[in-house]
Amino acid sequence: MKKFLSRKQFSGPTFNNWMKFLIIGLVLSVLTTVVLQFAMYFQIWGRFDQTLNLGQAVLTSIKFLTRAQALFTIVTCLILFIFIVVLVNRLFVGIAIYLTIAVVTFIAEYMKMKARNEPILFSDMSEVTAVGGLTQMVDKNLLMLAIVGIVVVFVGAGLLEYWLHRKKSGRFAESIKRMMIKQTGTRIAILLVSFLTLASPFIANADQNRALLDHFKYQWQSFNTGEDAMLNGPVMTFISNISSVIMRQPSGYSQKSMAALQKKYTKYSETLNKTRQDNLKGQTVAYILSESLTDPDDVPGLKYKGTDVFKNIKQIQKNAVFSGKMLSSGYGGGTANIEYMTLAGFPLATYAPEMVVPYTQLVPVAHDVPTITNLFQDREVIHPYVGTFYNRRDAYKKIGIQKFYTTDGKQYKYPEKYVKSVGSKNNYPADKYSYKYLTKKITSANNNQSQFIQLMTMQNHMPYSANQYPDSKYKMLEPAVTGNTKETVESYIAGVHYTDVATKNLINKLENISRPVTLVFYGDHWPGVFTFVDQDKQQERSHETDYFIYQNKAAREKSHAKTDHNQRAYASPSDFPALALEATNSKLTPFYALQTKVTKELPAFANYTRGEFVDNNGHTLKTKDLTKKQKKLLHEFKLVQYDLSSGKHYLSKSFTKH
């Protein structure tokens, strides 16, 4: 009888044991919520409650528990805990797995907020294949501490489980065993319910997800995911960005309206082409995405000791066909999004707010992705780093890139001899060597073929460390800052100097090349080092980088294009295809005729927000400030963008292709 009772008491958890199990999960869930919020608050940016005061950051994180949004995170974490423990059916092993996920999430959230003031988004999940490249950007001390902590947790869990199952008796061992579910049917039911609950946001649409979040008082910050995470928690922000919505249907969209637009812009392209004489045969259009490049002289309050760090690029801008300030959508990151705009000619600001990374959310599913690359016979991208970020390999195939050269490439490998850095502590290839490889690619092009080539540099990519360039003469004078900000800013400025000199040398080499070359050069975003700049007060300035479109002697002699150098003193990245085609005096499809009209008649899209523009004088305008004619053009542009991106594809292929 005693033996029978002993077996029966372990047949399944009692109510009291279930409550103990749930309390353990609840405690861990609350701690996880606080820790994740700490990753948002313990930052140097100074937005909302961000601070480097450890005690203040902890108190603010705990205070977050009083908000309704915190309950959502706690419930989500608790369901995840239940799923893991019931799946492995070992309490301590389950806790170890849960803690590992929590630690990895904390590090990812903390480091991304530190670099970009932005939490982890669903679109970042494509980066799991780029672990090797990502670890080079993570604080090594924090990474090692996390690894040691995870190892200790798993060793401890293993020892506890071993002790537990070797223990013949004891109240504690019996209590733990009774928490575990022995009945197969019950386990399956709990696993199914918890899994489906966790998976539901991934199969629901955007409106359904938003309705769920609204029950927990979600305060959507559509223009700033960092602020969204601080107000609502990173888990809520993550779920709010899962939706695959690309663009919501503009009013008046129909087959008839699109047929009318096709006819209108076919006629407009014919009018423009009467004065366009050239095609791209035998020419090169080269894009240089200069990583994190901006003019330090444009940073409010920054003063430094040393020669003008941007003097050569400023001179190149004066001699360029077009030049000015580019309005970036990112700050400290978001490179692929800016790159997409420069290729496709569509601004992020006119897509749905949920569509944050086109290469992962739009390109794989879009019916047609017209880009400037489609106009060329030879199409290559070179990148002195790994190629796994932002789903680039697959995205490039979809948009017609033929060769993608990276340091981890198998078929197309970036040559080792060009992977050299400047400075003993700089981990990334120097621009001057990347430029040498670009020049080699241009000079080896087939004279009877048109060539598009894009270089994405890495020299000025974060992180920036003290004494990264030991021979640098640049010193930060103002403002007075705390922590290691001074050293990182000085390293960044030194890197900009090397880019400035290398760019001048590149232009000199291109001038002596007989092949016509049009160079589209731009910085993709500010680096995440100017933490003393208030982005609320300096929103436009902190999203301005420099750009120019330059033609070598051969290109100038060939194109004879009549352009206004100051036509686009403030440009959106989406303006570049139309501007490049204008510089080369190339004939246009209806699609590029529409884009050309946009660059001539609409102010530049302010991609860091929605419904705002910046005119050539640097004045910010809202949609309501546009003229009736401009509003009509904007609506036509959105109709075309919707049809090509996620609509019913009423426009024929002749609209986008020659």
Topology of this protein?
Elements: H1 2-8, H2 15-41, H3 54-63, H4 68-88, H5 91-116, H6 131-135, H7 140-166, H8 171-179, H9 184-203, H10 206-214, H11 225-232, H12 234-240, H13 255-273, E1 284-290, E2 303-305, H14 311-319, E3 322-327, H15 335-344, H16 358-361, E4 378-383, H17 392-399, E5 403-406, H18 431-443, E6 451-456, E7 475-478, H19 485-511, E8 517-523, E9 544-551, H20 553-559, E10 570-571, H21 576-583, H22 590-601, E11 604-605, E12 612-614, E13 620-622, H23 628-645
Parallel strand pairs: 1-6, 1-8, 3-10, 4-5, 4-6
Antiparallel strand pairs: 2-7, 3-9, 8-9, 11-12, 12-13
Helix pairs in contact: 2-3, 2-4, 2-5, 2-8, 4-5, 4-9, 5-7, 11-12, 13-22, 14-19, 18-19, 21-22, 22-23
Total DSSP helices: 23
Lateral arrangement of strands in the main beta sheet: 5-4-6-1-8-9-3-10
Q: In terms of structural class, how would the helical and strand content be classed?
A: alpha/beta
Reported for the largest beta sheet, the result is: 8 strands, mixed
| Average pLDDT taken over every residue | 88
Provide a concise account of the structure shown:
With about 650 residues, this protein is α/β, with parallel strands linked by helices.
What does this structure look like?
With 658 residues, this protein is an alpha/beta fold. Helix content is 47%, strand content 9%. It is built from 23 helices and 13 strands. The strands form 3 sheets. Strands 5-4-6-1-8-9-3-10 form an 8-stranded mixed beta sheet, with helices on both faces. A hairpin with a 6-residue loop joins strand 11 and strand 12 (612-614).
